Fold:
Amino acid sequence: MKNKFTLRLILFICFSSIVFTSCTEEIELDLKSVTSQLVIEVNITNSSGPYFAKFSKSQPYYESSSFQKITPEWVVITDESGVFDTLKEVEPGLYKTDSSFMGIVGRSYRFQAKVEGRLYESLCRMPNIVQIDTLVVSESSGGGFGGGQGGEGKLVTCVFHDPSGIENFYLIRASVNGELIKDFVVVNDRLKDGKLFEQNLRQVRFQKGDIITIQLISISQEVYEYYNLLNQNSFGSPIAGSVAPANPPTNITPETLGCFSAQSEVSKTLIVQ
Structure:
């Protein structure tokens, strides 16, 4: 049970690069026999490239580095029309597409990579764009943490209309003064199909003068499930006394850690007054 808990904690720390901020607490864990696992993270969008693919392996926590960089034999992304790009190495464990390769809304993309003699692949369709109507700033006191300054401050709410008759899944992120905030929100339209959404980053507070950029990202159901469980793990951490979190589900086969996302995104920016 300790080993399963440890691996999941390592994953939680790994993906904090795109997700979490929280308080720190010293704990003692038995980490010596955690099995190393491959981690693959790939995103392509409707914005101009290049796009990046990251490859690493989780390591026992007592080692000097939490993640070992992995060098695949090759990495390719192909769209449904047959257009493909062979990614080039930027540094060990990090690969990028050519800048001319650009994601197109509505197309399906296949990611393939050969790592340690095994073929890993995933198929993902880029959802339609959903526009942001407006951003609303409101007062809030207490209860916040992460991004911005946390605690007392202002909330920024993203307002948008969900297209009716289509199952939609959203990832909402924010940058403050050019720095991406680790906290995020995922929502779906199962109970609000075709309705108005007013969504803020519940745990984040901003201060007067902050330059805030909100991203509304349309994602696939599989990617939504991945981020949703990642989000649940952040607020249901066993450190806080709950059950050990599960590994986020992957859309990559054979099963590994991480995900491949073809996602459409829009953004709006404001200065907090």
About this structure: The chain has two helices and 17 strands. Residues 221-235 form the longest helix (15 residues). The chain has two domains: 2-126+241-263, 134-219+266-271.
